Hints:
The chain is mainly β. Helix content is 8%, strand content 39%.
Amino acid sequence: xxxxxxxxxxxxxxxxxxxxxxxxxxxxxxxxxxxxxxxxxxxxxxxxxxxxxxxxxxxxxxxxxxxxxxxxxxxxxxxxxxxxxxxxxxxxxxxxxxxxxxxxxxxxxxxxxxxxxxxxxxxxxxxxxxxxxxxxxxxxxxxxxxxxxxxxxxxxxxxxxxxxxxxxxxxxxxxxxxxxxxxxxxxxxxxxxxxxxxxxxxxxxxxxxxxxxxxxxxxxxxxxxxxxxxxxxxxxxxxxxxxxxxxxxxxxxxxxxxxxxxxxxxxxxxxxxxxxxxxxxxxxxxxxxxxxxxxxxxxxxxxxxxxxxxxxxxxxxxxxxxxxxxxxxxxxxxxxxxxxxxxxxxxxxxxxxxxxxxxxxxx
Length: 363
């Protein structure tokens, strides 16, 4: 079964691609590619072909190798919890998410940026608005997700993703063993960020041999200190392809990020609090809506420095200038600097450069 390209937009040095499985053409997912490397994307394998699979009795000997990660994940109270040993680890892949279907998609140009709006509706009546703002000058994509209840009955959300980026990596036909690395930054109050780099395998994010088990690495912070253990930033690097994807949340409170795998490709997602992180629930009265925190995504040909430089430049461009006569913030390192403030970038003993992610992750 092929992957359908439902829409794509070259913007600056990025290619924004919306994809869907052929058997559910309205179930869109999002991929980001460096435009210069778009011709290096390979078709994913269709089935798992290891002897441990092919020697099983039917129908277990025909296991799909890939899936399209949904554009938006939402969990409505009462949904059947995710299977594959995921209960308590993730709220992705709920019944509501599985029923989300695209009802409208449009593009507009605004202030030099390209704005892509996608409207999705679920079987329970929930409507999600996914808005992507692509800046061709800096190569950073802003994401805003809003959920609305147009029904006559209240709907209670347990989870709403701020973004979901799938298909990692599109440069390998299989599950890309040994070539994917996850980058994060640890920190605490008044502490500099420490670069944490781990292989996908060391995080136990290999796909399950049958494709049934869900693999998830969730991390975040609870409370009004947004950098309390981790910065709200994650990146995945494909070292064989020389490409890195990164995601960053802009929030002053509880947040969570997740690296998830159910098939060959990884997916990155995240957002504000949910029932697993922060014991969050939000009841939408008829006609009411709620927005997830802003997220910023990028991809670059290069490593961690390349994507961090893009996010830092975008954060500086968004920062409001200080009022006239007000002194700038001190240059010493702080945790959770306010929007528009300044912060010294942290340095890693492994690199002669400053790691910029610590300066941008709470913009």
